[in-house]
Amino acid sequence: MLSRLATSTLSRLALTVPRTPLSRSLISLSVRTSSTLPPSSHRNLSSASAAPHYHDFPEPIGFEVVSPRPVESSNAFPSILITGDEELIAKGSFAEAQKAFIDPDPQAVSSLSEGMEAANVGIVAHFYMDVELQSVLQAVPNQKRVKISDSLVMGDAAVSMCRDGASAICVLGVDFMSESVKAIMTKNGYGHIPVYRADERKIGCSLAESAENLSYGAWLTKASQEKDTNPLHVIYINTSLETKALSTNIVPTVTCTSSNVLQTMLQSSLQIPELSIWYGPDTCMGYNLQTMFEKVLKHWSDEEIKQKLHQEHDRKSIQKLLNNLHVYPSGNCVVHHMFGKECVETVQSQYPDAFVSAHLEVPGEMFEIAMEASLDDKGVVGSTSDILNFITKKVEEAAVEIQKTGQQVGGEKKNLQFILGTEAGMVTSIVSNVKRVLASNPAAKDFVTCEIIFPVASDAVMVDSESEFGISPGVSGGEGCSTAGGCATCPFMKMNELDKVVDICQAIADGKSESLTGLHPPKRLEGKFINGRPAVEVGVDSILHMRHLMSEGKFSEDLVKEVVERSAANAN
Ligand code: SF4
């Protein structure tokens, strides 16, 4: 049954719940005071230097009927309209800036593909790369050597490229991604193949860093001192290998992604007796999951839970899971935190018929309206892949409907609007999928358009030469910044630049790989040990537990034993 828990379980779950307002009280997003417990005394990471502490580590329906008039829509937020003729119409300077790079520069494509060929390089990139970079990557002829995906898939894609003979892998993302890709390659016997990042500077992540402070260690120490339950730390993948290793040393830890976090919680609570789950560091995602479980309990019978969620769960087991689910209260992503109240009010007043998407990381207000929309199949909550798949599916449904009804010239047109409740870089993959769907349904091309709406200020483009990242998030402006004070584009992801990737390929092809040492993933754990084991291995353990779940549909017996035995040892 667990295999049926596809990535969109959250939204499927919502589809059958009677439409009722969500309980706002369940989505308290105010950041609560961190634990004041002292840092863990269980930590035992040895190296030549003094034992480190956390702070030591740096750094459908929903169609808008518009015919016979031309397609129109609200201008409250910038948007990109994709027509059946594959034309892109941008509204607002933010969208213009995105559109400008969706059609890749042929010269840039040939420079990159020739460089990749000469250097025998494979590239794995996150969906949040900037539009220019993603568009060029999508146009590289040898797509076996390119993968744009969410973080879960990046490591597997790199291993496939290594099997296919790639001599080096370039990871376009943030540092915890290159670190994880390297670790997974090593685990699969490809540790000798070099991995490169696309910037010499540290490519950070506000969410990952929120798990690198004393309060996170203190929170986990509190978990380890649980007397009545067996604690398991479920850590979001957006954290460093170091955090994963140090956490594992305090409490048994499994990694999860937004695609499999629900499955992780449901399955672990079945396999591990008297389990308590300690979820971090993404506070919004944790609270959103608590809300989901509350909704299940409010609306579903035992039978519905078995049919729609998990055949081995019922109301009693979900209640127990919820009672023992702890969420770290102080971890936030600077990007997803932008989708606050003001943004939601505009969506509701200006785009009543739009489909609404929200990444699991976004604050409760946006999550709430996307969740509510999903009750009528007019929205989705989930991972980046879930959002991409939902939009693609909705355009496909509309195109197929038009094909069936055989619309005539002058007939009714449909403009499908989608509020993009995640990082704006997703638009490249969305445009690519929508164009593909419309091209393969020729009868639909005159009748279906798709509009991607960015919930940011319409004229929000401002380059800030004083800023380290060249942009300035905040109320006063910045590329894609909202009046709520956040930014729709991740400043860390945008540190990855096309020119740098071409330079890397050139250096490798010229036999000058030694000049690229500053581009290797972080090696902060190298030469360090935790309880006699290499710290890198300890950090990878939590990822391997996740991979076991994904391949077998359940956690290993070794993990179950470890959780129970360590809990018993701590209690004595
Ligand atoms: S969008 Fe940027 S800051 Fe937010 S979790 Fe991803 S990498 Fe980190």
Automatic annotation (TrEMBL):
Biological process terms in GO annotation: 'de novo' NAD+ biosynthetic process from L-aspartate
Single Gene Ontology MF annotation: 4 iron, 4 sulfur cluster binding
EC number(s) per entry: 2.5.1.72
Keyword entries, A-Z: 4Fe-4S, Iron, Iron-sulfur, Metal-binding, Pyridine nucleotide biosynthesis, Transferase
Keyword 4Fe-4S: yes
Cofactor: [4Fe-4S] cluster
Domain of life: Eukaryota
Cited InterPro entries: NadA, NadA_sf
A Pfam family recorded for this sequence: NadA
First-level EC class: transferase
Signal peptide per UniProt: none
Pathway in which the depicted protein is active: Cofactor biosynthesis; NAD(+) biosynthesis; quinolinate from iminoaspartate: step 1/1
Family annotation (PANTHER family): QUINOLINATE SYNTHASE, CHLOROPLASTIC, QUINOLINATE SYNTHETASE A
The protein's name in its UniProt record: quinolinate synthase
Origin species: Triparma laevis f. longispina
